[in-house]
Write a structure and sequence with these properties.
With about 500 residues, the protein is mainly α. The chain contains 24 helices and four strands. Among the domains are: about 180 residues, Tetracycline Repressor, domain 2, CATH 1.10.357.140; about 140 residues. β3 and β4 form a beta hairpin. This is Mitochondria protoheme IX farnesyltransferase.
């Protein structure tokens, strides 16, 4: 037996159970007398009777206050309605439903910070735009900082971050795909002679290496020009030159060596025309586009030209393999056979606009604070119209690639779904001017669009599957044989004409 403190009942400790405490609570919760209620009762309406959560704690006495209620820090008061609501909210599917409702009413006014918006009438919400993924340069810089200062791994990571690896990979792929799409009889087989033109793996290797180095040089020069403005933007403030992890002298040396190595690889391993295009791309990106960002919003069009040059490089590289003349700029890019290269360049030129307009919109305030003249904040409505306008160009461009003989006509059909996806997201982006998640939707549609289009074009290259089938079943390629016979007859006739002795007309 244990005595309770003064003011409490004397009772056995073992009888402290739910039934006993419930009966005691009825005594504690006895309503006051009428006089007491009239004197001390608050003006608000009477609260419904409540159950104490502490009742269901077994084998323990709750300390009581002098008014008979349990302290708030030891028990929680809940009504039956509140318990039902809380149980519903804690169910997983209820939480998912609430998350979807909140996400539907979310709008963005900044790219990476939460902002509150007052909604119309019924659905107030806290809105935020999901930030776009950080660029690879920032990720590499963060990873390199974990290594010792003088380590080789740290220095290589920092130099690699100067090249903007993700952007460089996309550019190299857009140069390699047109090389493989060039219409020649043989596909990536060693060239035997002038009568059997083919695509050479060695030439493709030089093309990829040279394009990679040229891109790395242009991107490094871009970072050297604007570290002060990169520091004002969340996506670029972690770059190596901004953080001071790499000296400007070392970055400049890397840019120069990459430019010399890239242009040299294209000149000696491919042809002079491709080397000239690679050097022109470095000059346009670092010397025109980068400073123009602070002058006019037309810089985006200059950047689109830069993006359209790599497909021309790949096409000119393949054209040089089968050139019959001197392989000049005019022969490789300004003949009827070069139409496919210009169409692929137009494809990449148009792609830049939906991609960059969606990419820049969530961080438009940062562009404005940094002083970059981007259409996303200069004229948001026009920014959305431009993205939609250039998205519509992919339909006629896909048909034109079939018409000039780069791909089979089936490409015009198989490219429809991905072109429709990009256009649909561009329409949403235009209708909402970037809000309601439309910018993020267009960004990811553009990211997937260009690799899917290139793969579809490669799979449906003109005449490729016919040659594969004939090689499997052992049937000769009649078109190639006819061309070979005509060339052989012409060559034999030329040789006979050269060796023939002219008749003696003198008498």
């Amino acid at each position: 037996m244990r005595l309770r403190p003064a003011g409490n009942l004397l009772r056995p400790f073992t009888l402290d159970n739910v039934c006993w405490r419930s009966s005691q609570q009825l005594r504690y919760a006895k309503p006051p007398t009428r006089a007491f209620a009239q004197t001390f009762a608050p003006a608000t309406s009477a609260q419904p009777s409540q159950l104490k959560a502490g009742y269901f704690l077994s084998n323990r006495l709750l300390p009581r206050t002098h008014d008979g209620s349990a302290p708030k820090h030891r028990s929680t008061s809940i009504t039956s309605d509140d318990a039902t609501t809380r149980a519903k909210e804690e169910l997983p599917h209820r939480r998912r439903q609430a998350a979807r409702r909140n996400a539907a009413s979310v709008e963005s006014r900044t790219g990476e910070e939460l902002s509150t918006i007052t909604s119309n009438s019924s659905t107030p919400s806290v809105a935020s735009e999901h930030p776009l993924p950080p660029d690879a340069s920032s990720a590499l810089t963060t990873a390199s900082a974990k290594h010792p200062v003088g380590s080789l791994r740290r220095q290589l990571s920092l130099l690699l971050s100067l090249s903007k690896p993700r952007l460089t990979v996309v550019i190299v792929l857009t140069a390699m795909a047109p090389y493989a799409l060039y219409p020649v009889p043989a596909f990536l087989s060693p060239s035997i002679g002038l009568d059997t033109p083919s695509l050479s793996p060695l030439t493709l290797t030089f093309l990829a290496t040279g394009t990679t180095l040229c891109c790395a040089s242009a991107n490094a020069l871009n970072m050297l020009y604007e570290p002060a403005w990169d520091a004002k933007m969340s996506r670029t403030r972690n770059r190596p030159l901004v953080r001071g992890l790499l000296s400007e002298r070392r970055a400049l040396a890397f840019a120069i060596l990459a430019a010399v190595g890239g242009v040299g690889a294209l000149y000696f391993g491919v042809n002079p025309t491709v080397a000239f295009l690679g050097a022109a791309n470095i000059a346009l990106y670092a010397g025109v586009y980068t400073p123009m960002k602070r002058i006019s919003w037309l810089n985006t069009w200059v950047g689109a030209v830069v993006g359209g040059i790599p497909p021309l490089m790949g096409w000119a590289a393949a054209a040089g393999e089968s050139a019959t003349g001197d392989g000049s700029f005019r022969e490789l890019l300004f003949t009827s056979d070069a139409a496919g290269g210009w169409l692929l360049a137009a494809l990449l030129f148009a792609w830049q606009f939906p991609h960059f307009m969606a990419l820049s919109w969530p961080i438009r305030e940062e562009y404005k604070a940094a002083g970059h003249q981007m259409l996303c904040w200069v004229n948001p409505a026009r920014n959305a119209r431009v993205a939609l306008r250039y998205s519509l160009l992919f339909f006629p461009l896909s048909v034109a690639l079939c018409a000039v003989g780069v791909t089979e006509w089936s490409f015009a059909v198989t490219s429809l779904p991905v072109n429709y996806w990009l256009t649909r997201e561009a329409v949403r982006f235009w209708q909402n001017e970037g809000f309601k998640g439309s910018a993020r939707g267009l960004f990811w549609a553009s990211v997937w669009h260009i690799p899917v289009i290139m793969v579809l074009a490669l799979v449906q290259k003109k005449g490729m599957w016919g040659r594969v089938w004939r090689s499997i079943v052992g049937e000769p390629d009649l078109e190639d044989e006819d061309e070979y016979d005509e060339d052989w007859v012409t060559d034999e006739a030329d040789k006979e004409a050269e060796t023939a002795v002219p008749p003696n007309r003198s008498k």
